[in-house]
C-alpha cells in the first residue's frame, strides 16, 4: 500500500524543505520494521520546485494473522488471501504514526516556522477501501479545505458492466499544515475502511482526541467519524464526543448522540419519538406506583431530569458504563446547583449492566430505555441475570426499536443507529421477554410507543415486566 506526499514551492520556500518537516532526508531510503510488515520511506522526486515523499508499506498477511491468535473473530482463509498488502487501511495509519510521529506532532526544531504554517501539499492514495464510495470521501475531506479528487476503481476495466469496486483513488490538494494533513489522513483512513486490524482499547479515544485536535470538533461529520473510528463501541464514542466538546469549548448539545435516525425524527416531527418514549416510560412508572427508580444506561440523564421534576418519585438513580456520560448527566442536571432536597433524591454512578452490582438492588423499578439493542447478543443473558435475577426490582420497563416499522422511514437503510447490535421484530422481542419471565419469575405486558401502525406496529415496542415470585 502506498501514500505519497508532495510539496510544491511557493517561491519563498524550496519544495525540498519537505524533508525537514518529515524528518526524512530526500537523499536516503529508510526502512522501518513493523509487527505487520515493513515500511519504506523514499523520495521519487526531489527538486526545489516539487518534492514527493512516498510511504510504501509491505504487509505480511500471514504473519499478521498468526500474531492475532486462533480466537480472532476473523480466523478464516480470507485473512490469508485479502487486500491488506495493497489497499490503504488502518495498517497504513499505524505505519504513519510510527514513521512520521514527530511530523504529526507538528515539531520541527530546525524549521518550526515552516511547520507552524501552511504549505502547498498534494496527498495521494491510489487504492483506498471506501465504504460509502467516492462521495463519502469527499464529504469527509472537503470540509477540511481540501480539493478532493476521488474516483471509484472499476472491478474490471474490461467488463464495465460489472460496476465499481469498493476502492477509490484519492488525491487531496490544498495549502495546510503538514501535521494537520497527516493527522487527518491518519484518522480518516480507518473511518473510510470502517475496519481496524487491532483490538480497540480505551486508549483509542486518546489517539482520536490527539489526532483530531483543531479540526474534528468542527467537522460536520464529527459523530459519524467518531463512531467509525471507534468501531461503533458505544462507551468509547460517548467518551470521545464528550472530550471533544470539553476540549473545544462546545455547547452541551454538541455532545448529543442521535438516539434515532434522522428520518425517524422527521417522521415524528410533531412529537419526537424520544419524547414519546420518555412520556410512556414515566406514565408506566406512575401507574406501577414506583417510588424508587433506577435508570440503567441513563446516558445524559433525560429520564432522570423528568423523574426529578415529579415529587412522587422519592428516589431516583442513574447508572451508565461511560464515566463521561455520567459526568455530562451531572452537568446537564446541574447537580452542583440543585436544591438540597432534590439532590438528596438523586444518585449517579458508573457501572456495567452485564456484571453483578449490589448498587442495583433495592429499587421499586428499573428502566432499560433503548439500551438492550446496544448490547452484543451473546451478552444479553448476562444483562438479564443482573437486572432480573440479581437486582430484581418489582417492575422492569424495557423499550427497544421495532424493526418492522423501519419500512415507514423513507431513505432508511440498515439499522436506525450505527451502534445498534440488532433490532428486533415484535415476535423476536416477545420471545426474548417470555424467556426472561420463565427464567426469573416475571410476567410481561406489551405497550406501543408512537403511532401503532396496523401493518407494521409502533416504531418503539415496550415491555413492562412485573415480578410474580
From TrEMBL:
<keyword id="KW-0694">RNA-binding</keyword>
<keyword id="KW-0479">Metal-binding</keyword>
<keyword id="KW-0943">RNA-mediated gene silencing</keyword>
<feature type="domain" description="Hen1 N-terminal">
    <location>
        <begin position="1"/>
        <end position="245"/>
    </location>
</feature>
<comment type="similarity">
    <text>Belongs to the methyltransferase superfamily. HEN1 family.</text>
</comment>
<dbReference type="Pfam" id="PF12623">
    <property type="entry name" value="Hen1_L"/>
</dbReference>
<dbReference type="InterPro" id="IPR024740">
    <property type="entry name" value="Hen1_N"/>
</dbReference>
<protein>
    <recommendedName>
        <fullName>Small RNA 2'-O-methyltransferase</fullName>
        <ecNumber>2.1.1.386</ecNumber>
    </recommendedName>
</protein>
<dbReference type="InterPro" id="IPR024026">
    <property type="entry name" value="3'-RNA_MeTfrase_Hen1_bac"/>
</dbReference>
<keyword id="KW-0489">Methyltransferase</keyword>
<dbReference type="Pfam" id="PF13489">
    <property type="entry name" value="Methyltransf_23"/>
</dbReference>
<dbReference type="InterPro" id="IPR026610">
    <property type="entry name" value="Hen1"/>
</dbReference>
<dbReference type="InterPro" id="IPR038546">
    <property type="entry name" value="Hen1_N_sf"/>
</dbReference>
<keyword id="KW-0808">Transferase</keyword>
<dbReference type="InterPro" id="IPR029063">
    <property type="entry name" value="SAM-dependent_MTases_sf"/>
</dbReference>
<keyword id="KW-0949">S-adenosyl-L-methionine</keyword>
<keyword id="KW-0460">Magnesium</keyword>
Amino acid at each position: 500500500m502506498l501514500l505519497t506526499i508532495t510539496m510544491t514551492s511557493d517561491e519563498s520556500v524550496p519544495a525540498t524543505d519537505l524533508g525537514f518537516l518529515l524528518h526524512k532526508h530526500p537523499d536516503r531510503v529508510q526502512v522501518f520494521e513493523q509487527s505487520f510488515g515493513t515500511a519504506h520511506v523514499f523520495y521519487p522526486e526531489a527538486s526545489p520546485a516539487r518534492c514527493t515523499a512516498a510511504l510504501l508499506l509491505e504487509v505480511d498477511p500471514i504473519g499478521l494473522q498468526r500474531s492475532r491468535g486462533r480466537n480472532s473473530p476473523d480466523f478464516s482463509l480470507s485473512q490469508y488471501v485479502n487486500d491488506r498488502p495493497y489497499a490503504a487501511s488502518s495498517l497504513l495509519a499505524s505505519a504513519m504514526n510510527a514513521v512520521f510521529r514527530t511530523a504529526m506532532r507538528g515539531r520541527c526544531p530546525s524549521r518550526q516556522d515552516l511547520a507552524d504554517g501552511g504549505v502547498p501539499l498534494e496527498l495521494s492514495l491510489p487504492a483506498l477501501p471506501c465504504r460509502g464510495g467516492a462521495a463519502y470521501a469527499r464529504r469527509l475531506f472537503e470540509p477540511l479545505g481540501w480539493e478532493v479528487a476521488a474516483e471509484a476503481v472499476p472491478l474490471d476495466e474490461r467488463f464495465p458492466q460489472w460496476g465499481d469496486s469498493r476502492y477509490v483513488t484519492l488525491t487531496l490538494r490544498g495549502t495546510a499544515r503538514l501535521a494537520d494533513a497527516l493527522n487527518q489522513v491518519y484518522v480518516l483512513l480507518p473511518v473510510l475502511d470502517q475496519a481496524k486490524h487491532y483490538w480497540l482499547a480505551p486508549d483509542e479515544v486518546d489517539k482520536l482526541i490527539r489526532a483530531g485536535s483543531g479540526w474534528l470538533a468542527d467537522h460536520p461529520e464529527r459523530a459519524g467519524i467518531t463512531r467509525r473510528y471507534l468501531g461503533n463501541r458505544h462507551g468509547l464514542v460517548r467518551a470521545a464526543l464528550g472530550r471533544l466538546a470539553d476540549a473545544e469549548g462546545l455547547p452541551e448539545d454538541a455532545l448529543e448522540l442521535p438516539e434515532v435516525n434522522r428520518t425517524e425524527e422527521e417522521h415524528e416531527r410533531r412529537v419526537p419519538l424520544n419524547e414519546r418514549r420518555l412520556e410512556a416510560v414515566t406514565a408506566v412508572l406512575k401507574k406501577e406506583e414506583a417510588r424508587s427508580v433506577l435508570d440503567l444506561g441513563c446516558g445524559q440523564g433525560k429520564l432522570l431530569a423528568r423523574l426529578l421534576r415529579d415529587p412522587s418519585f422519592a428516589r431516583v438513580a442513574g447508572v451508565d458504563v461511560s464515566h463521561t456520560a455520567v459526568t455530562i448527566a451531572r452537568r446537564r442536571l446541574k447537580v452542583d446547583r440543585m436544591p438540597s432536597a432534590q439532590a438528596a433524591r438523586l444518585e449517579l454512578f458508573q457501572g456495567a449492566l452485564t456484571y453483578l452490582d449490589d448498587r442495583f438492588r433495592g429499587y421499586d423499578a428499573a428502566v432499560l430505555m433503548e439500551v438492550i439493542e446496544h448490547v452484543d447478543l451473546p451478552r444479553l443473558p448476562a444483562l438479564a441475570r443482573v437486572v432480573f435475577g440479581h437486582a430484581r426490582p418489582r417492575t422492569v420497563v424495557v423499550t427497544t426499536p421495532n424493526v418492522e416499522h423501519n419500512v415507514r422511514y423513507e431513505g432508511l437503510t440498515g439499522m436506525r443507529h450505527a451502534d445498534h447490535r440488532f433490532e428486533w421484530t415484535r415476535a423476536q422481542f416477545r420471545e426474548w421477554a417470555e424467556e426472561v419471565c420463565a427464567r426469573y419469575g416475571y410476567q410481561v405486558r406489551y405497550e406501543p410507543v408512537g403511532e401503532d401502525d396496523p401493518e407494521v406496529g409502533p416504531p418503539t415496542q415496550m415491555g413492562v415486566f412485573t415480578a410474580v415470585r
